[in-house]
Amino acid sequence: MKLKLLTLAMFCGTTALITGCSDNDSKVEIRPIVKEQLADEDKQPTDDKQPTDDKPKDDDKDPEEPKIAEGTLLELRIMETTDLHANLMNFNYFSNKEDNKVGLVKTATLIRQAREAATNSVLVDNGDLIQGSPLGDYMAKIKGLKDGDVHPIYGAMNTLDYDVANIGNHEFNFGLEFLDEAIDDAKFPYISANVFKDDGDDDPSNDVPLFTPYIIKDKQVIDKNGDVQTLKIGYIGFVPPQIMQWDKANLEGQVIAKDIVDMAKHYVPKMKEEGADIIIAIPHSGLETAEKKPLAENASYYLSKVDGIDAIMFGHAHANFPGPRYEGLEAHGVDNEKGTINGIAAVMPGFWGNNLGIIDMTLEYGAEGWQVKDTQSTLEPISITNPDRTVTSLAVNDAQVENAAMAAHGETKTWVNEPFAKISDEVNSYFALVNDDPSIQIVTDAQLWYTQAIVKGTELDDLPVLSAGAPFRAGRGGADDFTAVDKGDIAYRNVADLYIYPNVLKVLKLNGAEVKQWLEMSAGQFNQITPNTATVQVLVNPDFPSYNFDVLDGVSYQIDVTEPARYDTKGNKVSDGNRIKALTYQGKPVTDEQVFLVATNNYRASGGGNFPGISGEKIAVDSPNENRQVVADYISLQSDKTPETGMDPSADGNWSFAPVAGANVVFYSSPSDKATAFSARFAHITPLNQTTENGFAIYQIDLTQPAN
């Protein structure tokens, strides 16, 4: 069934849109994205030796080569970037302003300085490069890449002499074909040890890696005596196995993903056998100390227990290690001062280029070869935020990176600022975690409109439709990371501000009991509040990602935060708490057996976020259309109905907190004047004119009354 709906040509991408823009949807032929094709002996797991750089054969060795004296010391600096998310320039495309808190153009200066200050150094990148900013979207969805084109990200990185790079989960967001075309111009090798071709035979003994799992590179180094030595450095990379959920539409039937630690235990001994003096693991994976589960997303802690790994350059969590987030983990072997995990050197340098990660390693030569004698992990920031919220840049723009990025940067700025519709009031996410909010309402309304249209005349036509949306920009990236769209003209940067991910719309078929548990999981966003106490209590749980705080429009409900959360952030049931109250559809209580269609995105529909009972098997409408495109189409359509004022973005107030008596409750939000002014619209929200040490404004919320 095809529906001819209003669209904008500039949004037509690589997926077939409801508006008529389409591509050939034939399957992509997979080939290993490596510089050399893997030979038969490279299959996993039986005999998968990997190439080394100019590795000498035994009979090629000079028998007169002098031996290294025991006790010889050398120093090696290992540098890392991670989670750049296409932030090449120090620029915020959403606000259309310079932003000195982000950008490889700044990090590059620190790289060159750190390299100059060290006798021996190597540089790695840990993925999530090509997606995450409007520049990434522009290159993938608007301009595209032809054979021979160099993606500006790689044009910039090629000036920095990277030694190796690892694949991140967001590399798969635009499909394997685009990924292949993007990385084939990188002047450095790519690795990933836990992604394999899907050969469909359920026989792991003949699985072929999609990427080169690891490499061993000969590095010419100078020891403390001033002598030149050859250090064989092994690099091995990993990506969260959850890519098979998050990018199911791009990967299913083409690749499989395996457990990170299992693959480390398989490959690391082989790397040692092949002569690696030291082994650097580059997991695009965060740090959790709980008991390991199969196919763990955040496996860096468990990698520290794999014998043979000497350093862990990790990422994915958009956090700093060493850093305050990881204090108090000494009992788990985490040294937050030295930057080690169970004695293994480790570093994670934030996101968007805001830090350069450095491990300074001292090696000593002994009877067993080169051994790690000492390490120190540090983070070098590109800026500091002053007490008055002004930003001081700590690095000038790197001229080579700036030159490589400038053309695409200019084209992206032009594209994101082209208006196509209007809204009659401002839209922001300052209070999206404590109020029903317009920034979510626009998304859920658009998804509802799309779903009702696409199921019309089908066997699903009579089912009630709900729509799920979450605040993507609600402070996760810092006190300035909030959606803020002025009333008036709407451009693409505003749509990307409302919906930052290139997700694809999916529709699930669920019963009332499953809908309620979905909301119980979302309600884990909040800490448990004790009534009738003067003690200040913080409402929002900072460890619960805001993109998992789903609001379900189409039903009405209250959230009782005096009850304990039923699920933790990983979807594990931790109590019998019953936070969702008064759940109704069209004024009547929702029953467990009632059947609904729920519009959401491919991430959530495939199990992303670990919501109980939510999986790909529940998908009733496997739409090819991007959520962001649906939002753009909807805004345009509604704006055309009232061209003078534009679309009304008001929230419908379908959820609120159940009243709580006598509690002194606060939450944190943007410190901007706009946020303070906007709070005046709500009688239950009061700015306290105070800020946290991270720069967030502190607001008090009166839970004795519902939201206005």
Automatic annotation (TrEMBL):
PANTHER family: 2',3'-CYCLIC-NUCLEOTIDE 2'-PHOSPHODIESTERASE_3'-NUCLEOTIDASE, 5'-NUCLEOTIDASE-RELATED. Signal peptide: none annotated. It comes from the Bacteria. It is found in: Cell envelope. Residues 34-70 are annotated as: Disordered. Belongs to the 5'-nucleotidase family. It catalyses: a nucleoside 2',3'-cyclic phosphate + H2O = a nucleoside 3'-phosphate + H(+); a ribonucleoside 3'-phosphate + H2O = a ribonucleoside + phosphate. It holds the Pfam family 5_nucleotid_C. Residues 34-68 have a biased composition (Basic and acidic residues). This is Bifunctional 2',3'-cyclic-nucleotide 2'-phosphodiesterase/3'-nucleotidase. Its main location: other.
